Amino acid sequence: MADEREDVFDKMHEECGVFGLWGHPEASQLTYYGLYALQHRGQESAGIACTNGKVMSSHRGMGLVTEVFAGDRLAGLKGSAAVGHVRYSTTGSSNVLNAQPLVFNFRKGNLALAHNGNFVNAHQIHDMLEKQGSIFQSTSDTEVLAHLIARGIYSTVTENVQASLGMIKGGYALVVLTDEELIAIRDPHGLRPLALGQLGDAYVVASETCAFDTIGAEFIRDVEPGEMLIINDEGLHAERFSASSREALCTFEYIYFARPDSDIDGYNVHLVRKQLGRLLAKEAPVEADVVIGVPDSSISAAIGYAEEARLPYEIGLIKNKYSGRTFIQPSQELRSLGVRLKLSVVKKVVDGKRVVIVDDSLVRGTTSMRLVSLLKEAGATEVHVRISSPPVRFSCFYGIDTSAREELIAAKKSIEEIREFIGADSLAFMTEETMLSAFGDTKMHHRFCNACFNGLYPTEIDARLDKLTMER
Ligand code: AMP
Fold it and tell me: What CA–CA distances, in Å, run from 350 to 239, 254, 374?
């Protein structure tokens, strides 16, 4: 983790992506492609578990999907049903034991579990289970759920999954595979996304719809908050495992995480971002010559800003797509050059210009600070930073790593102090109200979780988790 924090662009950590498929002879191959499309949700580890109805085989490892499944790794994963996972650790340390899917064999057969999100009461349950003799191999929340399921008193796995979920609080999208069925679950608040699709006779579930497009599947619908889909050779059966709670879809999925070509709960991510950019231009106009965005996640908002402001949109920053997580960290002396390895300025676009740079979020302020200085070095006469979301003032406990609270610059500094810190000529964020208006229908507004902006958490938070995050 420490190394990551010193990454050349000092990015925050991302969360995970899940995928599941039932009823296709090439299940593991398709899951591989699905995970490939979800790679932006986590680059630390990847894994697939596959069943032929009797035998469950799996492989997981550290690295990108293409690295983990290099050579003929997929060839050994045979069967017509599979689940897969890409991970970036938000809780639990970074090692292969925490890679998913977690696969185990217990008295009711084989079980594979893959999970995106966080259980906010995992510590309490973990302690209770340990006191009762459970032995844990990993530090991930997912293993807590695996233990609960394995100890379940009911006769079917589905019932035990359902009973276990009753004990768990948090934000999660889960896929559970047995030799008989695939179970897909979205938390009662709908904090993490999960969609259902179809490929011929096969059913597919994925964190984001972009995975369906990649494998040629058709989107059917979003899994509803508090819903559990049970898919087997008889077809699909949907049931609710929880009474409806306040819906709390994560706005950060739209702002930063999800891929622009994905639709979540009826909204296309690119179009929401573009609208955020437009609203930002209305709310925080500035005299300038050119608008640029921070690749990749802010491009849509920058285009929206430029359109509304009637300013030229330009490509002012180029991202080196190959410098990802596997990129070897430069030595200490070279670290200051690191920023140029990851993002470079198109000098002729900004030289002598008043530049508006749009970013989707500002968390610790490191990205903006580095970019302002790069743009100025490249000859920009003024740099105006526009952020297409409100200031992040609170930690997220639901799977988005927004840092310990004391690292969140907006939790400690005023907007003017942040402007000074990043060295910009002006800085503006978006208000929460304006952000919500990007979703149109005002009836939708209460359906989102904006806890990272306003501290209103949709679930109780274990005081220990809070303390842990504070200390991290
Ligand atoms: P910071 O540099 O800490 O202010 O973080 C803001 C930058 O990181 C912006 O460019 C965002 O696009 C990006 N970002 C925001 N949240 C996350 C996250 N949870 N993981 C990775 N990057 C993020």
Answer: 55, 28, 10
Q: Which of 367, 385, 400 has the most ligand 1 atoms within 8 A of CB, as the residue to mutate?
A: 367
Report pLDDT digits (tens) over 372-417: 999 999 999 999 999 999 999 998 888 776 666 778 999 999 999 9
**Domain identity same for 405 and 338:** yes
Instruction: Give the residue whose CA is nearest to atom 22 of ligand 1.
Output: 12
- Please give the Cα distance from 159 to 296 (Å, whole number): 42
Q: What is the tens place of the pLDDT at every residue in 146-157?
A: 999 988 889 999
- 449 included as an active-site residue: no
191 shares its domain with 290:
no
> Domain limits at 64?
16-245
Q: What is the pLDDT of residues 125-137, one digit of tens each?
A: 988 888 888 888 8
Determine which residue's CA is closest to atom 11 belonging to ligand 1. Answer: 361
Query: Is 463 within a domain?
Result: no
| pLDDT score recorded for residue 119 | 87
Per-residue burial over 236-265, b if 16 or more Cβ lie within 10 Å, else e, is eeeeebbeeeebbbbbbbbbbbbbbebbbb
Q: Classify residue 180: in a domain, yes or no.
A: yes
In a domain, 432, yes or no: yes
Q: Which of 133-137, 206-210, 279-283 has the lowest mean pLDDT?
A: 133-137
Which of 1, 300, 361, 430 has most ligand 1 atoms within 8 Å of CB, for mutation?
361
Regarding whether 47 and 158 lie in a shared domain, the answer is yes
Ligand 1-lining residues (CB < 6 angstroms): 10-14, 256, 294, 297, 359-368, 400-402
Closest atom of ligand 1 relative to the 401 alpha carbon: 19
138 and 191 fall within a common domain: yes
